[in-house]
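Lecture notes, continued. The same structure-token format from the folding unit now serves as the input rather than the output. Read the line below as a description of shape only.
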């Protein structure tokens, strides 16, 4: 897609530090290096976000993530865990609109990385949860 920075990286028009590549995905180091080894896994087919994946593309991309994650983890004995993050939409902090998965190796509690979910459980009685779930379940089609 024109003017897509990740399509340009995939096409080799913009350099990247690639760690894995095959016919369907490319994995390269994120320039921000939130922690050392911070990697982006991107489908070679341009899709803006998770809402545009069909089941084949989803299977193809997700199938590769564990082996890429393992390779990163095995590359450094100091890596103790990994956050896998996928932002969808500007409201959700997506800034490049070619879908990608962040693989962020975790070394210690002192890593410069924050992802804390607010606990609102005291505000959600079962009735409210049931209502939300019913609205979502209605959307699944055969
Ligand atoms: P988002 O905010 O959309 O979830 O993540 C986009 C990521 O792409 C950011 O972490 C940013 O550092 C990374 N990024 C943006 N431009 C480039 C680039 O030209 N090369 C690389 N390697 N990463 C990029
Ligand atoms: Zn693209």
């Amino acid at each position: 897609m024109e003017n897509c920075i990740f399509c340009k990286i995939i096409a080799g028009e913009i350099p990247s530090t690639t760690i894995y590549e095959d016919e369907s995905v490319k994995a390269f180091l994120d320039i921000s290096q939130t922690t050392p080894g911070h990697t982006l896994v991107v489908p070679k087919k341009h899709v803006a976000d998770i809402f545009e994946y069909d089941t084949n593309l989803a299977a193809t991309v997700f199938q590769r993530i564990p082996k890429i994650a393992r390779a990163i983890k095995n590359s450094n004995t100091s890596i103790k865990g990994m956050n896998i993050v996928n932002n969808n939409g500007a409201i959700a902090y997506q800034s490049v609109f070619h879908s990608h998965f962040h693989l962020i190796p975790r070394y210690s509690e002192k890593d410069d990385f924050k992802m804390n979910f607010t606990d609102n459980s005291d505000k959600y009685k079962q009735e409210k949860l049931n209502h939300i779930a019913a609205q979502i379940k209605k959307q699944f089609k055969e």
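Point for the exam: Residues 1, 4, 6-7, 46, 98 surround zinc ion (ligand 2) (CB under 6 Å).
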